[in-house]
Amino acid sequence: MAKKHEGNILAGCLVWFTILVGMPWAIIKTGSIRDAFLLIFLLYVLAGIAYGVVVIIISGQEQAILGRHQTKARAQMKDELPALIDRHAATLERNLRTAIVKNDYGKVLSDDQEKKIVEFLDSVPLSFDWEQIETEAIEFTRRHLRDKRIRQKSQGVDFEDLPTDGIDFEFWVADVFRKFGWEANVTQSGGDQGLDIIVKRNGVSAGIQTKLYNSPVGNKAVQEAHAGANFYGLKRAAVLTNAGFTKSAKELAESTGVILMSHYDIPIAHELFPAR
Predict the structure, then answer these.
(1) Is residue 159 part of a domain?
(2) Which CA distances in Å does 228 have to 127, 157, 197, 198, 223?
(3) What are the E-state strand segments in 122-172?
(4) What value does the CA radius of gyration of the chain take, rounded to a whole number of Å?
(5) Residues 31-86: pLDDT tens digits?
């Protein structure tokens, strides 16, 4: 838009220069005002043609440069974006799910999924300007998440189809951990000491408290998971929920070292529970 405005200014200057400077010269040369006008008009047409040619050349060069930048950005997108999407898949899935608002009859009232993807792309560290290929980057993110869900369903895991009972959710979570290579044992109900599941893999063990909620989980669950890990002699504790966490829960988790998880995080639990 700015370049177009600059071009209009330049064209205006050319017109006034032709009138103010060229007219006296043309009158002297032709000796006639009528012939002078014809000469000025001819010069103005030629100048306009020259200006148009220059604009086309410059525009073509800019498009070529933009094309090279876009080609490079596409290659970098394919290299960098998949790992970032996988790392933030839990948050992305949750945000995309809540971005669609429906009424009581299932009609979609608003859909802000694209805004959530743009927020993600703006927030993660990328070495390229994703806005140069904005439409492609948004669609790439959607497609990668969709393909990820398809692969998980082929493994017998459907993160959208959760149990409706808290105890069933504990066993569902343990089963999903097993499908991703963990040994998972549900603790005895009523005597779990703050932990519902204990998982182990490659010498790494962690205690997990699960919460199937309709609203964000508070700091009580974090306190219980921390105490349970101490009781069982575990170095890692986590709270896993489908509903997100309150601000106070996040603050307490940071100070106690308790890991806050979504069920979407289970495939990358090995990154959340590093060996110590």
Answers:
(1) no
(2) 42, 28, 11, 10, 9
(3) none
(4) 32
(5) 666 666 666 677 777 777 777 777 777 777 677 766 788 889 999 999 999 999 98
Domain shared by 124 and 212, yes or no = no
Tell me the β-bridge partners of 217.
245
Which one has a higher pLDDT value, 246 or 50? 246
How is residue 15 written in tokens?
């017109």
- Give yes or no: residues 118 and 141 share one domain: yes
Cβ(260)–Cβ(211) below 8 Å: no
Residue-wise pLDDT tens digits, 185-231: 998 765 557 899 999 999 999 999 999 998 889 999 999 999 999 99
Residue 207 CB neighbours (<10 A): 27
Q: How many Å apart are CA 229 and CA 135, to the nearest integer?
A: 46
pLDDT above 70 covers a percentage of the chain that reads 82
Tell me how far CA of residue 210 lies from CA of 147, 159, 230, 243, 249, in angstroms.
27, 15, 17, 11, 14
Does residue 100 share a domain with residue 65?
no
Distance CA 180, CA 63 (A): 47
Contacts of 23 (CB under 8 A, 6+ apart): 36, 40
